[in-house]
Amino acid sequence: MVFSKDNMTGIILALLSSVFIGTSFIIKKKGLRRAAVVSGVRAGVGGYSYLLEPLWWIGMITMIVGEIANFVAYAFAPAVLVTPLGALSIIVSAVLAQIILKEKLHPLGVLGCVLCIIGSVVIVVHAPQEHPISSVKEIWYMATQKAFLLYMGSVIVLVFILVFYFAPQCGHSNVLVFTGICSLMGSLSVMSVKALGTSLKLTVEGKNQLIYPETWAFMFIVAVCVVTQMNYLNKALDTFNTAVVSPIYYVMFTTLTIVASVIMFKDWDGQNIGSITSEICGFIVVLSGTILLHVTKDVERSSSFRGNYTPTSPSLSTRLCNSNGESHKHEEEDESYSEEADSRRQDLQV
């Protein structure tokens, strides 16, 4: 495949974004741990002391840089190309989690990383070209189609159900609740980000789009979605293991974003069946890699608590819904918090 200049620009920006975002997961996690030690209140149970932790802000700035690169990438390339490349952020976070957070990466996790890379390459090779857009009004027309309005309405209803019903009951025992809210809102934010990015790109090219109310409407939607994502992502990161949150968030977010993009921007229009099939297969390979990373991480964590005994691996859904596994995780983190707190008290006494 011959890459267009816009597609190549989008790919490079997406890769840089993955590096920054993957690193930010680890830095923010470290900041959340420090804040919990100082205040005694974890972000997962409503604490906001992390806002006073410099390390958390460094992680946030790193994430913002990555998101800006991602934002610009959507202005140059289709979402079905840019979004799956976020798999590289999982590889970055998994490797750094092993080095910095001491969260061991199982040998099979390396295979998961390789699968993510292979799947991403397949997607890049068979990705569609960006459809030319001449005005933000054209994007607004796409966003108000019946099919996309139905999708958007379904997302809003599901988010309300998760926030007001499931989050209070099982948000701290089921990783799918917090990550589900982030992913659902994320699919809408990406569509708005692409619309806003395209508007700014056209404005820079001399076609002022800031005079249209649609541009500001997309900007407002981006702000609401991003704030919601950030809040629940912090809760997910503080409640569950980083190596669990990152892949599951990626899988759900990417799947929903591709669906939303195909509905709204009709990215697959004009592509042959072979290319579409290759993209789907590449995406499945990426999903397999992220799930493998998750599964091997759970096995490694379980064996660290149970000595040499290695249990038979339950189904993925069982592990996600079982709160017992997460209680082990909390015991591990609480122990580390206690050790850090004791160390700080000793330093103060000295």
TrEMBL record:
Entry's Gene Ontology BP terms: magnesium ion transport
Q: Could you state a single Gene Ontology molecular function term?
A: magnesium ion transmembrane transporter activity
Record membrane topology? Multi-pass membrane protein
Q: Primary place of residence?
A: membrane
Polar residues bias spans: 304-325
* Localization per Swiss-Prot or TrEMBL: Cell membrane; Early endosome; Membrane
Pfam families membership: Mg_trans_NIPA
Fetch the InterPro entries from UniProt. Answer: EmrE-like, Mg_trans_NIPA
- The residue ranges crossing the membrane are 6-27, 48-65, 71-96, 108-128, 148-168, 175-196, 216-233, 240-264, 276-296
What keywords tag this UniProt record? Cell membrane, Endosome, Ion transport, Magnesium, Membrane, Transmembrane, Transmembrane helix, Transport
- What segment(s) does the record annotate as region Disordered? 303-350
Q: Where is the composition biased (Basic and acidic residues)?
A: 341-350
GO CC, one annotated term = membrane
The family line of this record is: Belongs to the NIPA (TC 2.A.7) family.
Assembly and oligomerization: Homodimer.
Q: Please name the PANTHER family in this protein's record.
A: MAGNESIUM TRANSPORTER-RELATED, PTHR12570
| Record's function text | Acts as a Mg(2+) transporter. Can also transport other divalent cations such as Fe(2+), Sr(2+), Ba(2+), Mn(2+) and Co(2+) but to a much less extent than Mg(2+).
Query: By what name is this protein known?
Result: Probable magnesium transporter
In the UniProt record, the gene name given for this protein reads LOC102605258
